[in-house]
């Protein structure tokens, strides 16, 4: 759609939407004299929106908005597009010659019309229905996508005044988007939102159980032989391209390190993408961000390492609210994109229990990184302490390994802490107590005690 038709179709759609909103508002005002309670869900039908017709329609559809969410959007948009619609709320109560408390609202400094507050929203959505009012409070919670994606804000009320007396505002970006169809991208100007990760460590420094190593060796074989296998042996006709791996296990067990070392071993760059950084509130933007990453990665023949994948799994299985459903579209898109990608993709996650089977089946390899056992912990301690071999150590490392159930990441943190203390004290030996203090700090972080 070119800009002219886009603006025209936005205007047409919003026109219908404002008429629906206006009918709803009038019905609600009449409720007061007729002692009825109009039900926004059923009593007045909203216009049918085609997501392909306008940005507004697409926006509503993208977030799978409920009637209440949709009414709220129009309410906050009205001062920007048809302010006179709200003038009726200036109406005076003839018994006391003041405005109606239940209409809420404030007047602007320059804007002479009515600016909605939380109370105005509640009047529109719930009227005198207290139960509905309580339920709609969720729209203003911090975890609602309105707040999370910075779409609608309930400004703070002055101290001592009800929360809902705060003004309701919509972000200017969204107003521009829904009217002119323009998008000023704030965060994603970079072409490749991924970071190259490298390490000074070597493959032999990795401390992993045999099962984990075996699972990894298959991936290594594939990376070595894939081209020949697919092209010369002709398996490309039957097999999906690429290799998709899931790394899962507790924090600090070596998932990121292993991904980095795989790249080093096989001479490929490894790019880490924190999933939270590619998910955008704008329709199609997440897809665009992912497209950028995949397109660039295809050319570079690198390994893509998607970190923080937990968010995806959680959202995939829990579809209880509209925002989750919306997140699901992004998840499906990501999975499809991963499936089609001809290179190596590694996803890392801390949890396994909420990953469903359908999801698991998309991976050629699922590699578990368990907490290290005593023997492994001993090697981790030895590896970490080898950096400090110039210091005297008058104790047995086996004691540390036997006593404390720590992952490699925590062991590194303990050694760093003890080394700092030693340096600060200008001591020549690494003291056992300092290590134990370090262990205690790590355990506290994990919510455990010594
Ligand atoms: N299995 C291991 N072998 C050797 N060193 C390890 C191992 N696990 C962790 N380490 C050490 O701990 C550091 C942190 O580990 P890493 O970042 O790979 O953990 P992670 O599994 O990615 O954790 P998270 O789930 O929190 O992202 C590594 O850089 C390394 O120094
Ligand atoms: Mg990691």
Please sum up the structure shown:
The protein has about 450 residues and is α/β, with parallel strands linked by helices.
Overview of this protein structure:
The protein is α/β, with parallel strands linked by helices and about 450 residues long. The protein has 3 domains: about 5-180, no CATH class; about 195-370, Rossmann fold (3-Layer(aba) Sandwich); about 375-445, Helicase, Ruva Protein, domain 3. It contains 17 helices and 12 strands. It has helices at about 5-35, 55-60, 65-80, 120-125, 130-135, 145-150, 170-180, 210-230, 255-265, 285-300, 310-315, 320-340, 355-360, 375-385, 395-405, 410-425, 430-445; strands at about 90-95, 100, 105, 115, 150-155, 170, 195, 245-250, 270-275, 305, 345-350, 365-370. A 6-stranded mixed β-sheet has the order 7-9-10-11-8-12, with helices on one face. Helix 10 (about 285-300) packs parallel to helix 12 (about 320-340). The longest helix has about 30 residues, at about 5-35. The chain is elongated and about 90 Å long. The relative contact order is 0.08. The model is unreliable at about 185-190 and about 315-320 (pLDDT under 50). The structure holds adenosine-5'-triphosphate (ATP) and magnesium ion. The site of adenosine-5'-triphosphate has 17 residues, from helix 9 and helix 16.
């Amino acid at each position: 759609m070119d800009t002219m038709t886009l603006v025209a179709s936005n205007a047409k759609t919003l026109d219908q939407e404002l008429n629906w909103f206006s009918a709803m508002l009038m019905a609600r005002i009449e409720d007061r004299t007729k002692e009825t309670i109009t039900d926004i869900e059923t009593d007045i039908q909203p216009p049918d929106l085609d997501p392909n017709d306008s940005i507004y329609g697409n926006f509503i559809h993208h977030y799978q908005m409920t009637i209440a969410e949709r009414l709220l959007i129009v309410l906050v948009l009205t001062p920007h597009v048809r302010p006179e619609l709200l003038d009726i709320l200036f109406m005076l109560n003839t018994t006391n010659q003041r405005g109606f408390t239940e209409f809420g609202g404030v007047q602007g400094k320059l804007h002479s019309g009515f600016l909605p507050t939380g109370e105005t929203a509640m009047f529109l959505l719930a009227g005198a229905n207290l139960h509905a009012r309580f339920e709609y409070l969720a729209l203003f919670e911090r975890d609602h996508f309105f707040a999370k994606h910075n779409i609608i804000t309930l400004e703070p009320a002055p101290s001592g005044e009800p929360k809902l007396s705060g003004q309701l505002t919509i972000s200017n970006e969204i107003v521009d988007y829904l009217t002119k169809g323009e998008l000023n991208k704030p965060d994603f100007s970079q072409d490749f939102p991924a970071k190259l990760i490298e390490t000074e460590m070597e493959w032999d420094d990795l401390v992993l159980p045999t099962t984990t190593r075996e699972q990894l060796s298959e991936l290594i074989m594939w990376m070595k032989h894939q081209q020949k296998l697919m092209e010369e042996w002709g398996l490309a006709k039957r097999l999906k391209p690429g290799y998709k791996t899931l790394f899962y296990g507790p924090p600090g067990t070596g998932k990121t390190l292993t991904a980095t070392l795989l790249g080093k071993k096989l001479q490929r760059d490894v790019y880490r993408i924190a999933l939270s950084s590619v998910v955008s509130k704008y329709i199609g933007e997440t897809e665009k961000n992912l497209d950028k990453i995949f397109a660039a990665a295809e050319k570079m023949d690198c390994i893509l390492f998607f970190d923080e994948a937990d968010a995806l799994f959680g959202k995939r299985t829990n579809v209880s609210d509209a925002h989750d459903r919306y997140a699901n579209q992004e998840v499906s898109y990501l999975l499809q994109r991963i499936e089609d990608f001809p290179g190596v993709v590694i996803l890392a996650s801390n949890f396994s229990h909420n990953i469903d089977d359908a999801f698991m089946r998309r991976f050629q390899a699922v590699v578990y990184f368990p907490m290290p056992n005593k023997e492994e912990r001993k090697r981790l301690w030895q590896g970490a302490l080898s950096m400090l071999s110039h210091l005297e150590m008058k104790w047995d490392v086996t004691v540390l390994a036997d006593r404390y159930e720590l992952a490699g990441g925590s062991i590194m943190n303990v050694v760093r802490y003890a080394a700092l203390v030693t340096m600060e004290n200008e001591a020549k030996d690494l003291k056992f107590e300092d290590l134990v203090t370090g262990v205690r700090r790590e355990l506290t972080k994990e919510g455990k005690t010594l």
